[in-house]
UniProtKB/TrEMBL annotation:
Source lineage: Bacteria, Pseudomonadati, Thermodesulfobacteriota, Desulfovibrionia, Desulfovibrionales
Keyword Iron: yes
Family: Belongs to the KAE1 / TsaD family.
Residues binding Fe cation: 110, 114, 317
Keywords, ordered alphabetically: Acyltransferase, Cytoplasm, Iron, Metal-binding, Transferase, tRNA processing
GO biological process, one term: tRNA threonylcarbamoyladenosine modification
Catalyzed reactions: L-threonylcarbamoyladenylate + adenosine(37) in tRNA = N(6)-L-threonylcarbamoyladenosine(37) in tRNA + AMP + H(+)
Chief location: cytoplasm
Source organism superkingdom: Bacteria
Role description: Required for the formation of a threonylcarbamoyl group on adenosine at position 37 (t(6)A37) in tRNAs that read codons beginning with adenine. Is involved in the transfer of the threonylcarbamoyl moiety of threonylcarbamoyl-AMP (TC-AMP) to the N6 group of A37, together with TsaE and TsaB. TsaD likely plays a direct catalytic role in this reaction.
Record's protein name: tRNA N6-adenosine threonylcarbamoyltransferase
């Protein structure tokens, strides 16, 4: 069974082909440089760029892997949550293709796809506790199968990735700054008393990262020598030396620790409340973070759980995860009609599948 995946939920345009659970090939175009100028994603620019790139990437994918549209069995598309205008580009393209080829249309929950992505590389084991730490979401799920997700915890304000990006922005690091914070953080030990771990002194499984973000911003503003005068590029970050570098690394490591340790506390609590989990799945852009990865490895080892972490290129947005998640749904006989709707950020993605064949 050949499944095409289409991803246009935010600032990556991506397509991929998955055959029988294995990746055949993929194409990805990131808009990071376009949005960097504005310090964040500009929705109007994002939609236009998806419109420009999606047909191009699709044609390249077909040519490079010697596939014709008629050979595609399922067309999986990220239907949300995401930027509505961006999602509509992918969803409309998917519908047109489904109509013209007769392939089945499968709307994919982008967040579930992040959590299932590692299944392309190793076997997923259920029931699993899922931690999604991405640019827009910090969610924990109880996952009983690839089609049964129960949301058990979420951020009340900023997502973990957002906190990384905002801290990086205060320091004038290149956008998006998470990976630069990560890199500097690896050079030193954290000062665990420097920044707070918010929302841990209550029994909740929910997260809050905006207080931590503000604490770091206040600290940095009180130490203006840490801030780059002009937006730093990678070379400027590498060139930094001496006490200023040591101080900056300490700030990054301490902030990174506060995030990672908050995630640890909530995941351990979630495991206590949800007995019988066989694995821990961590996904999303922040799952690329080295301290988050090592912390989650320790949690899983202590609880004797399998830890499933996608490779770094599968952590951030990509088409392969959409194709793979879509192929799992299609494998269960779950499809959508051409009435499939895109779902913007903040709205719950409905479980509105049809069972059997496309209308
Ligand atoms: P969502 O899936 O919630 O809609 P998104 O798809 O935009 O959001 P992702 O692509 O999964 O988010 O992740 C992007 C986020 O991951 C950014 O905030 C980025 O800074 C962060 N990130 C990427 N690498 C690292 C890293 N090594 N350390 C910390 N954060 C990182
Ligand atoms: Mg992105
Ligand atoms: Fe994403």
């Amino acid at each position: 069974m050949l499944t095409l995946g289409i991803e246009t939920s935010c600032d990556e345009t991506a397509v991929a082909l998955v055959r029988d659970g294995r990746l055949v090939g993929e194409k990805l175009s990131t808009q990071i440089d376009l949005h960097a100028l504005f310090g964040g994603v500009v929705p109007e620019i994002a939609s236009r760029e998806h419109l420009r790139m999606l047909p191009r990437l699709f044609n390249e994918l077909m040519d490079e892997y010697d596939v014709t549209p008629q050979m595609i069995d399922n067309i999986a598309v990220a239907r949300g949550p995401g930027l509505l205008g961006s999602l509509l580009v992918g969803v409309s393209f998917a519908k047109g293709l489904a109509l013209s080829t007769g392939a089945s249309l499968v709307g994919v929950n982008h967040l579930w796809a992040h959590l299932l992505a590692a299944g392309l590389e190793s076997e997923l084991v259920f029931p699993a506790l899922g931690l999604l730490v991405s640019g827009g979401h910090t969610h924990t799920y109880r996952i009983d199968s690839p089609t049964e997700f129960q949301l058990i915890g979420r951020t009340l304000d900023d997502a973990a990735g957002e906190a990384f990006d905002k801290v990086a922005k205060v320091l004038n690091f290149p956008y998006p700054g998470g990976r630069h914070v990560d890199k500097l953080a690896q050079e030193t030990e954290p000062d665990t008393s420097l920044f707070p771990r918010a929302f841990i002194d209550n029994p909740s499984l929910d997260f809050s990262f905006s207080g931590l973000k503000t604490a770091v911003a206040n600290y940095v503003n009180a130490h203006p020598e840490l801030i780059f005068k002009e937006m730093a590029d990678e070379a400027a970050l590498d060139a930094l030396s001496g006490e200023r570098r040591a101080h900056l690394c300490r700030v990054c490591a301490s902030f990174n620790w506060s995030v990672a340790d908050t995630l640890r506390i909530k995941v351990e609590r979630a495991l206590k409340k949800n007995k019988g989990m066989k694995s821990l799945i961590v996904a999303g852009g922040v799952a690329a973070n080295s301290m988050v990865r090592s912390t989650m490895q320790r949690v899983a080892d202590a609880k004797r759980l399998q830890l499933t972490l996608p490779n770094l290129n599968l952590c951030t947005d990509n088409g392969a995860m959409i194709a793979y998640a879509g192929s799992l749904l299609a494998g269960e006989g779950l499809y959508h009609s051409l009435d499939l709707e895109a779902v913007p950020r903040g709205r719950v993605v409905p479980l509105d599948w049809k069972v059997g064949k496309r209308d």
